[in-house]
Amino acid sequence: MWVKWFRFSPPQILVLGFAAIILVGALLLMLPISSTTGESLPFVDALFTATSATCVTGLIVVDTGTYYSTFGQVVIMLLIQTGGLGFMTVATLFSLVFKRRISLKDRLLLQEAMNQNTMEGIVRLIRKVLIYSLVIESSAALIYTIRWSFDMPFGRALYFGIFHGVSMFNNAGFDLFGHYQSLTRYVGDPIVNLVTMFLIVSGGLGFIVLSDLVDFRKHRKLSLHSKVVLTMTASLILVGALVIYVFEFTNPGTFSSLSWGEKIWASFFQSVSPRTAGANTVDLGSLRQATQFFMVILMFIGASPSSTGGGIKTTTFMILIGAVISMIRGRSDLVLFRYRLTQDRIFKAVTLTMLSLFLVIAVSMVLSTTESASFLSILFETTSAFGTVGLTVGLTGKLTVIGKFIISFTMFAGRLGPLTMAYALGPKKGKELYRHPEGKIIIG
């Protein structure tokens, strides 16, 4: 491959690679050509935007549709595509195009980047990732273009279609409509709602699940991973839509002025979006506190492994629920779809959840001292950054310089994952040659 790495572990290379892309993106966004006014964007704002785009989050401190020029918007779109697929996937694309050999070190990196347990078939999976992304984004861009050609000139509709196809499939949530309005003008539009939700869900399912679904006609079966992801995704969307519909039905700031059809569309869209897209069709700042807190939970869970989304992931959440149910029933094994999960899977799920929870709590506490906002707004912003969601109740534009750096770090950690960050920063451990005697403590 065209990049050679020495003396770094795969997690360290991923951290350094994403950091390098963010820095280059920030420098490009600082150029006068990137803004419509010809002025240079302050470094902290450029770094925040580059981090948000590369980590496919969608939080913004300046309006994407009005502040950035076409050059700046294209830079953001390229950062979204690179960050969504992963820089190692993009590097592999160049290697495949130029017929370069993919070394063992590169395969180890791809295994870490795609969160796989084995290197077997990893290059074949990368090929599928690239093909699926191109097909889905192109198809969505075409439908977007046709729909928006009724609202704007065809050339502008085509540009909007391509940008939003890339942004929504990669769960970034960046939009070009300006004035921080996202997709609120299309709250009841069936085409925009269906296409956008399809992009968000397909990008959040993960490429392994997409591959399973494509091959289902041939093999007539799904892997355990795909069954867990599809079951949990469908459950969260349906339950989320129902809860949001009930909580917001009589809210004068959001749903009360909408028709029955628009309320249903809005409920499903706001249920899908926290998983982890960042687009919205109603004013999130006007939602009831109960709804906002419920969306915090959805954002914390996030999307699925090997996807363009963040959060602790649907599989982790399913394992936690299954472990609780197994413990209540007095069973020693966790069984999902007639398959028993090993203890290391459960330990990893608990570890990931606790690290993520500690990160969100710590960042929220720090921001509570640096920012002038309600705690729920700060928690919402922090969880949105950690889950690489991009939804906000209005705090992003009011962040202090310290707050911008903190949220940028949270987006970075959320995109790479707390475990990857811990492996990259922690010392390398040798294999334990002995086990301690078993002890017992009282719990509960």
UniProtKB/TrEMBL annotation:
<feature type="transmembrane region" description="Helical">
    <location>
        <begin position="12"/>
        <end position="31"/>
    </location>
</feature>
<feature type="transmembrane region" description="Helical">
    <location>
        <begin position="346"/>
        <end position="367"/>
    </location>
</feature>
<keyword id="KW-1133">Transmembrane helix</keyword>
<feature type="transmembrane region" description="Helical">
    <location>
        <begin position="228"/>
        <end position="247"/>
    </location>
</feature>
<dbReference type="InterPro" id="IPR003445">
    <property type="entry name" value="Cat_transpt"/>
</dbReference>
<keyword id="KW-1003">Cell membrane</keyword>
<feature type="transmembrane region" description="Helical">
    <location>
        <begin position="74"/>
        <end position="98"/>
    </location>
</feature>
<feature type="transmembrane region" description="Helical">
    <location>
        <begin position="129"/>
        <end position="150"/>
    </location>
</feature>
<protein>
    <submittedName>
        <fullName>Trk family potassium uptake protein</fullName>
    </submittedName>
</protein>
<keyword id="KW-0633">Potassium transport</keyword>
<dbReference type="GO" id="GO:0005886">
    <property type="term" value="C:plasma membrane"/>
</dbReference>
<keyword id="KW-0813">Transport</keyword>
<feature type="transmembrane region" description="Helical">
    <location>
        <begin position="293"/>
        <end position="325"/>
    </location>
</feature>
<keyword id="KW-0630">Potassium</keyword>
<keyword id="KW-0472">Membrane</keyword>
<dbReference type="InterPro" id="IPR004772">
    <property type="entry name" value="TrkH"/>
</dbReference>
<feature type="transmembrane region" description="Helical">
    <location>
        <begin position="405"/>
        <end position="425"/>
    </location>
</feature>
<keyword id="KW-0812">Transmembrane</keyword>
<feature type="transmembrane region" description="Helical">
    <location>
        <begin position="373"/>
        <end position="393"/>
    </location>
</feature>
<keyword id="KW-0406">Ion transport</keyword>
<dbReference type="Pfam" id="PF02386">
    <property type="entry name" value="TrkH"/>
</dbReference>
<feature type="transmembrane region" description="Helical">
    <location>
        <begin position="191"/>
        <end position="216"/>
    </location>
</feature>
<dbReference type="GO" id="GO:0015379">
    <property type="term" value="F:potassium:chloride symporter activity"/>
</dbReference>
